[in-house]
Design goal:
This protein is an alpha+beta fold. The chain has one domain: 3-Layer(aba) Sandwich (NADH Oxidase), CATH 3.40.109.10. Strands 1, 2, 3, 6 and 7 form a five-stranded antiparallel sheet that branches. A two-stranded antiparallel ribbon has the order 4-5. β4 and β5 form a beta hairpin. The longest helix has 18 residues. The protein starts with a helix and ends in a 9-residue tail after the last helix.
Length: 186
């Protein structure tokens, strides 16, 4: 598969069906993430791959209202990092950026493996940390909901969720996000 095809296929869909995810696939995703660049090669990211039914059921309790669609996940990946494990240069704290780059590679690998991934912010981080036994000084940055693309998303989603599902939301035009030589207005 070509990289451009994988990037184009990656979508944050909500209409997911459960699908078995093998240990080999988990390792492939983790290996892809491990190849991400980071400040001084600190590699501050940690990923908790959750596919145990009991743990998945416990994680459902931390999801915010509106994320009920995520209850069908066959895998949830908690992305964790600690500020002190990476560079801090004046006001720039790199741990979030570096964990984000690793997460993007993980999600692209999952897409290549035929999975749908959707990173969410709507969850109770402290409760997730407790359930997953994440150390207190680490941040649970996001939960990545994983599954297969749903065969019949119209049976699973609200009308507004389905509308976004059927067509990729508009992207910012290049003229807005790409500047040459200096920053030019918003």
């Amino acid at each position: 598969m070509q990289l451009n095809e994988t990037i184009s296929r990656r979508r944050s869909l909500r209409g997911i069906d459960p699908i078995p995810v093998s240990r080999r696939e988990l390792e492939e995703m983790a290996r892809a993430a491990s190849l991400a660049p980071s400040c001084f090669n600190n590699q501050p990211w940690r990923f908790v791959f959750v596919r145990d039914r009991t743990q998945l059921a416990a994680l459902k309790e931390v999801l915010s209202s509106g994320n009920e669609w995520a209850h069908r996940a066959s895998l949830v990946v908690a992305v964790c990092a600690r500020r002190d494990d990476d560079c801090v240069v004046r006001e720039r704290e790199y741990f979030l950026f570096d964990a984000g780059m690793a997460t993007a590679l993980l999600m692209l690998k999952a897409t290549e493996l035929g999975l749908v991934t959707h990173a969410i912010a709507g969850f109770k981080a402290d409760k997730a940390k407790t359930i997953l036994q994440v150390p207190d000084d680490m941040l649970v940055i996001t939960l990545i909901i994983c599954g297969a693309k749903a065969e019949r998303p119209e049976e699973l989603l609200t009308e507004s969720q389905l509308a976004v599902e059927l067509e990729r939301p508009a992207r910012q035009p290049l003229e807005r996000i790409m500047m040459l030589d200096r920053f030019k207005g918003m």
